[in-house]
Amino acid sequence: MISQLVQAFNIIVYPGLLFLIIFSMLYYGLLRKLAARMQSRIGPPIWQPLLDTIKLFGKESVEPEQAKAGFTLWPIVALASVLVAGLLTPIAGGAGIEVAGGFIVLIYFLLFGALAIYLAGFSSSNPFATVGAMRGVIQMIGYEFPFIVSLVVPMVFLRTLSPLAVNAYQLQAQASPAILPGLPWIGLAFPLAALAYFVSLMAKTELPPFHVPDAHQELVTGYSTEYSGFRLAMLDLARMLKLFVLIALGVAVFLGGTGTGFVGFGVFIIKSLAVLVVLALLRVLFARIRIDHVVKVCWIVGLAGLIDLVRVLLF
Q1: Phi, psi at residue 190, to the nearest 5°?
Q2: pTM of the model as a whole
Q3: Contacts (Cβ under 8 Å, ≥6 apart) of 156
Q4: What are phi and psi of 7, to 5 degrees?
Q5: What residue ranges do the domains of the chain occupy?
């Protein structure tokens, strides 16, 4: 009975659904705040995404006449997929759920969550949304290759499909330096794979300079142009959750992992915020690039990541 209650707490509260939803909105608000300060602006308060989400769930959601089947379904699928991916992601040494083939399942739900967002754009039958969704699908062709390659490296190196096992291995390497002499982090042992991961992270979350699918100067708001109310709230929440989940996964797999307890949680916050600061800096430094350049950049870093994969396979 107690074990069932603990499992329910892990899934629903921490590091489960409530934790993921609240912290994803706070991290996205902090990203906007950091970018604003870097541009000498005041920016919105950190809790603004939380207020916007609450407001959108209370507003009317208008469905256009030309909308196709799936206009409501795909935002729900997108949000549910990213939430499941979040439950599989190690946060402060633990995860909401653990399944066999963790990395494979995690990659699947992250990919399907992104695809569902673009299918939502197609289902609205709006020209701006359709072009944005088409760009998003093309961008997927670019970033999924380096993303998968970067995660295959630690999988092959440690011969495991469990993200929690990769997290635990790095903690063990830090406690016993002989395991990875001088390189207690997977990201230090395989820097090209880490580079491929964090570049694909920016592309998957559509952070500048990879914000091609929702380029405001060209496509209004891209694939979400026709969305409002609770449907728009689910799409926005799915994007914020994806950012937080990918940062947490990067910390667990490439940045030394984190332990459990208050100390482990503190280390997770410090590492994840450090990644967020770097993302905010890159967001304000670079202008948007063309969609063909997005694919080219992603495949270049993906090929660089293959070098680390060859190192693992041969040496």
Answers
A1: -130, 75
A2: 0.94
A3: 309, 312, 313
A4: -65, -40
A5: 56-314
